[in-house]
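Researcher: Go.
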Amino acid sequence: MAAAADLTRNDDGFVHLAASVPLRADAGAVAAVLERGVSGWEERPGLDGIRRYAVDLRLRLGGPGAALSTFRKAALVDIGAVQRGAKSHVVEIQWRAATAAPLFPVFSGLLRIGPGDLSISGLYAPPGGVVGRIADRALLHVAATGTARWLLGEIEREALAARR
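Model: Structure:
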């Protein structure tokens, strides 16, 4: 069950983004994927304790298996060290556009692994001031949520593939 989007906006223009997918993989396997690196994502030099990837973030229109079109945007995704807990694990995650950055939001938040789901929760600022915030309310928040779910799905797919 996917989490409903939280459209809470605060006074400084940031928007809360929350997305999740059911966790079918073992939480430890997902944490291991994040610790060793996500295959297929081009690793770039990052700061200490941060893995940076060049990734084409994707938004599929029409849903899985019936995608009418897929939009891609080159981005830099930063993934922090996995903080392992007894029931769940937490990882800092950020992303931003690799090109034309002022036209796209920058996201910063947490990726949570288990129990039962894989989720992202954090903040982004829609670009373009007031006009960008209006566009975000009308459509862009749906795109941000879909992109976050795609990213979660890619991480989980790798953990499931490692199990085979």
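Model: Helices lie at 27-36, 129-163.
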